[in-house]
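Input:
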Amino acid sequence: GAVVSQHPSWVICKSGTSVKIECRSLDFQATTMFWYRQFPKQSLMLMATSNEGSKATYEQGVEKDKFLINHASLTLSTLTVTSAHPEDSSFYICSAITTGGQETQYFGPGTRLLVL
Amino acid sequence: AQSVTQLDSHVSVSEGTPVLLRCNYSSSYSPSLFWYVQHPNKGLQLLLKYTSAATLVKGINGFEAEFKKSETSFHLTKPSAHMSDAAEYFCVVSDGYGNKLVFGAGTILRVKS
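Output:
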């Protein structure tokens, strides 16, 4: 149980375009999902916390207008990288916690974004 | 604020020998601590977690970790390494409020045959 999927698993796009990444909890309902970013050879950095039906909470230094988050249902959160640039190339990982409020975060497999 | 220090960026062991991955934490609250493993191009998998119950925590794949408050440590161990254990390991702390996780820098474990 507690499986989280992400789509797509990798994406290549041109500079200036927007890219949408989906995060789904497959066998549980998630009131809260998290979006992380991982640069090569570095650890995960929390970008934002996404709560179903409300606005996301962004970490300091993360541009909310560039990284749009929508958590429209208890099983789906989306991250849209708007007007992507090469410096946005990274590994984006989402996680989710169950509606029971359990602390354990279940992570998706990640989405590798390359902006040319 | 919480923080995590993983003392070794790389650890290399021979197959069948013990594994020790070191982690020290800093937290203003009574922390929850986790170890996650990440295989190349894969998502993170939870190995084990400590949430103020027993200080010796047993996880999957034979791993365990001991919470030592006096040393602010949460080292990960395994008696006998297997080739499939080669991966990157992250020590993680949570304050339990809002479930925000803070990740250590990671330790890459290499297992030699």
